Automatic annotation (TrEMBL):
GO biological process: lipid catabolic process
Highest taxon of the lineage: Eukaryota
Organism: Bubo bubo
Compartments, record wording: Secreted
InterPro entries xref list: AB_hydrolase_fold, Lipase, Lipase_LIPH, Lipase_N, Lipase_panc, PLAT/LH2_dom_sf, TAG_lipase
GO CC terms of this entry: extracellular region
Record Gene3D superfamilies: alpha/beta hydrolase, PLAT/LH2 domain
Catalytic activity: a triacylglycerol + H2O = a diacylglycerol + a fatty acid + H(+)
Record's protein name: Triacylglycerol lipase
């Protein structure tokens, strides 16, 4: 029995004090900053790669919906696969309690392959991610080392450049990507999808995802722990571009709050945390629908302080963030945007000015209805209460219809039951400013008579830049 234990130590690793060493990957210690620092007092050592049964599944356009399991240990599997050194490569890395064998990781690979001819590798570490959260936190150091070892193998076999590689990680997977990037210099891009907060928030850069881990690091925060809310993600910036959709903590359309805790704090669950990879997925299909505005706070963004974009433009959250010319201007750039509650989540921010005409004062509400070329409509309230003639009403709208696909806009007003039957209300002008270029687009009402009944005026979307 003793002999078997000795053999096991040689096979799986050697433990010396508070350090464990694994063949190919090197040694891991629990010295600071890995433990014993603020926010990271209770941690330990990672499991062996054999125990975690880490696998790399390759998806290409040749494999279709299937995949090929490839291994850096048995490098002939890569040479015999459809991996091509002439293509870019994306690694998709899941987080705690998840899997790389099915679900969002596989769906992400398949969608990426629809728009780009790449090698997409799904990294699975299910057995290392299904224990306690603390054990999974420890294990990502080995997973990151394995990803780095895989990249080194690609360099050795194909002379493959890290500059061709994009690591996409969710939650603990984001920090796993950071660990791989710490070990391999020159990775083109790392995307952190709501990087895990517990045991990472406020820790030194070596421990977590950091801008130095790749040439370009972009981050989506969807469940940030920001008081009074308690979330699963990080609130602090940890990339070159950090996006905070809907403020970055609570996502519209998610209802997994714990009612018993609402009095003191909001406990946020998995839906908000998962939105980050859902946003990234949809951003592949809607390249202009996730424009982020540079702002210090979400409150400033909501009040319109950061609208429209400056001359240098604004980046797109998600897949096309790397197209932003100023992406490397500095680190820790904060960007805010709002999304819709339901897929595809994309919105286009517009500032709307409505000048009324008709009776001097009346009670009711005024709305705009946007129509697209496919017959879909979305209605948005502009103002309600006492409405005054000649007053200009201003509203920031996050419209779920792409301006390029907008066929017409309707002006809709509803009067209260006590309003005189003969009262009429119209819109003298409607001006719309689009956020991406700072140009106002005027909708001209001059060809439409006002007061056509108690409710509806069709307004066709006549585009005219006015500055």
């Amino acid at each position: 029995v003793v002999g078997m234990w000795i053999l096991a130590f040689y096979v799986l690793g050697t433990v010396a004090g508070k350090e464990v060493c694994y063949q190919r990957l090197g040694c891991f210690t629990d010295d600071p900053p890995w433990s014993g620092v603020p926010g990271r007092l209770l941690t330990g050592l990672p499991d062996s790669p054999e125990h975690m049964n880490i696998t790399f599944s390759l998806y290409t356009r040749e494999t279709g919906n299937n995949s090929q399991v490839i291994s850096a240990i048995n490098s002939s599997t890569i040479q015999k696969s459809h991996f091509s050194s002439r293509r870019n490569t994306s690694f998709i890395i899941h987080g705690f309690g998840s899997t790389g064998k099915k679900g969002w990781v596989v769906e992400m690979c398949l969608l990426l392959l629809e728009v780009e001819n790449i090698n997409c590798i799904a990294v699975d570490w299910t057995q290392g991610a299904n224990g306690t959260y603390i054990s999974a936190v420890n294990n990502i150091r080995v997973i990151g080392a394995e990803v780095a070892y895989f990249i080194k193998t690609l360099q050795k076999i194909f002379r493959y450049s890290p500059h061709e590689i994009h690591l996409i990680g969710h939650s603990l997977g984001a920090h796993t990507a950071g660990e791989a990037g710490r070990r391999i210099q020159g990775i083109r891009r790392i995307t952190g999808l709501d990087p895990a907060g517990p045991y990472f928030e406020g820790t030194p850069p070596e421990v977590r995802l950091d801008p130095s881990d790749a040439d370009f690091v972009d981050v989506i925060h969807s469940n940030a722990a920001h008081l009074p809310a308690i979330g699963l993600g990080m609130y602090n910036t940890t990339g070159h571009l950090d996006f905070y959709p809907n403020g970055g903590t609570v996502m519209p359309g998610c209802t997994d709050l714990m009612p018993e805790m609402k009095q003191n704090a909001t406990i946020i669950g998995g839906c908000h945390h998962s939105r980050s990879h859902e946003f990234y997925f949809e951003s592949i299909l809607y390249p202009t629908g996730y424009l982020g505005y540079p702002c210090e706070t979400y409150k400033s963004f909501e009040s319109g302080d950061c609208f429209p974009c400056s001359q240098q433009g604004c980046p797109m959250m998600g897949h096309y963030a790397d197209r932003f010319p100023a992406k490397l201007k500095r680190v820790n750039q904060k960007y805010f945007l709002n999304t819709a509650a339901d897929p595809p989540f994309a919105t286009w921010r517009q500032k709307v000015f409505v000048k009324l005409s008709g009776v001097k004062k009346m009670k009711g509400d005024i709305n705009l209805v946007f129509h697209d070329t496919e017959g879909k409509t979305k209605e948005y309230e502009i103002a309600s209460g006492v409405l005054s003639q000649d007053q200009v009403y201003t509203k920031y709208l996050d419209v779920e219809i792409n301006p390029k696909n907008t066929k017409k806009i309707e002006f809709l007003w509803n009067k209260t039951i006590f309003t005189l039957l003969w009262a009429r209300l119209g819109a003298e002008t409607v001006n719309i400013i689009h956020g991406e270029d700072g140009h106002a687009v005027t909708v001209d009402y001059s060809t439409h008579p006002l007061g056509l009944g108690p409710g509806l005026l069709d307004v066709f979307y006549n585009r005219r830049n006015i500055g």
